Amino acid sequence: MIREDYQKNGYVLRRDFFSETDLTTIEPILCRFHEQWMENNSAYYKDGAINSAYITHADRLSKLDRETLFKFISMDRLVTIARDLVPTGPAFMNTQLFFNPKDHAQKNYWHRDIQYRPDDVAKQQKLLCSKTVLHFRMPMADEPGIELVPGTHARWDDTQEFETRMGKNGRSSSDTLPGGKCLALKRGDLLVFSANMIHRGLYGGDRFAFDVIFCDTDPELLEFVDPKCLPGSKMLENLPNPNAFEATWEAIKKG
């Protein structure tokens, strides 16, 4: 059922997936990281930042906090879904936190994550059909959520979508798209969606969401992974499902 839903729509939403115990285990860690990030990136935040990354980096968290996050990321329930949805993987790619912009009037924007790679449109179209990259989004508070265009994980933009996403021919990346579907999220939900599909975050509420990104075990996708964001050999031994991290290590070595 999960695979069928994803193949059709490009996303899977599971309500009340996490227990309160699950969330209270990692939430203080995420808050500590976020407070430090805000102190070190105040100018970036004022300029419109709405997310941070590399939460598991060895220079940003204590050893205990990192191991706690890695155990959470490798829990059976998450890894089972990742294995079901990632054809050649899963491999661990990154972590992110999503929050509201400083300017409450700041507009959100339609995008595909692949548009930020240094590739031309033809290469992006090829990647769309051949590479799997998934966001596992876990809101720590109720929030407006995300707006997706279902099915665009498996097809390229039509003219209106492309002009909107890229801000061309008088259109803005914040303009309404007719196929958009809004998914409000609550604390405890899990939203899995393709990074390749057309989507945009919806600001408001107490937006504070933790994303774990899994992908195919592919050196091209994993070439920018910072090894300091991965668990070392001793830490791997203590994880319930270390395979996604081991796959990333192997891809980095091959790359």
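Above is the first protein from milestone M3; the second protein from the same milestone is given next.
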Amino acid sequence: MKKILYTALFSVLAFAMTSCVNEVEEVFDASASERLEQKMQECKQLLTSAANGWMIEYYPSFSSTYFPGGVTYAATFDADGNVTVTSEVATDPSKTITSHYSINASSSVVLTFDTFNDYIHYLSDPDEYAENVYGGDFEWAYIEGDAKRMVFRGIKTDNRIVFTALEEDIVSCITAIKTIQEEVNAKLYTGYRWTEGVVAPAEGEGEGEGDGSNDIIIYAADSGNKLIYYPTGDTQGAYEEYPFAFTSKGMTLYNPITINGIQASTFEWDAAAGAMVATDAVTESGAATQVALAGWYREGFIHYNDLLGQYTLRYKSSSSSSSYVSRTVTLTENVPLQSYYLSGLHASFPNVVVTYSKSTSGLALDYQPLGQYSTRGPAYLCPGSGSSLMPAPGYGWDIVNIGEDGQIVLQFIALSSYGDIFFLYNNGGWYLISRLYSPDTMTKK
């Protein structure tokens, strides 16, 4: 009896296994290795089929503080494994770089940039301190694609990478992107007003409004390509981050933003209106609608350019004095829209660097090397007090505007008890060159 039962059981199992095998064979016409090979061929055929190349919206690590947001490349791929790239990070987009790529397969099909390309590997390779501070990757897993659009994901980051087939050549693409990027960045918008309806030409900087305009503000990060939205309106509360990449027409958010039931992710720059106008905005029902991000400035905003010029610096004459003396100092351009040279603190050091914040319109002066001081050794600016000094970053000054009625009066706020400006050189020890006691204000002339 047992023998009969075992025989029947084995017959049932054998039938079930046969059924499963037949079912698998019916679902897949090719083996796993054959399917990978087909996917590799598809990826290469698509990459090389775009006559003008591809615009590539790429996002390194979202956790990186050094490059928040996306960066755009443009590239052509040939059948011999050569890729020619230019990028918005290029000073001159006409300077293309050609390197080698390969398409490989393990558990998935992977596009690898396997010889050094300064544009691609800039965000993915370790720096001189052996750190990959941008958190990017140079191996991208192929997900899907057609002749107009391909989608990859970073092997390390899992971030989506979108290829869009170009109608123009790669240099023209990046030139157009940089033109929009530089025009928008030069505005130094504090953020954007979510504007429902047709956006009108701006009457002033960032004042474009449309029908149904409201007071919902989406803030621009101080650096990088990222927007910040506070759903409750409380800038001390919970927030959402929206990394974006510039395109040849405007920008694309990595993830769509939804406000008042309207969703949008792709925008075109309208210079006359000072706004990014959505091209894919839809309501909850899926109906097309109109919405824009109109450039906006916070109250009291001061543009980088308006801070250039001469100032009267007020500071104490000695550590024990309560009286102030003054001298003329000057802010000149260092990195456009980001930092200045402050001259006049000491004749030997006309290039003291102060940084600019568009979110506060303020400046920051920090510990910094100043170069060689005569033949005595390298010189430094650092905070100090009495006979103590703090030769380390983070102990300097915030410099904020306290002026009224359009006057610019920048006040020094020491970030520690070390409130004097020390100029020193180091030659086996610290030696004082000069000192300014308790810097107070800089009033623009």
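Note on the second protein: Confidence is low (pLDDT under 50) at residues 1-27, 204-213.
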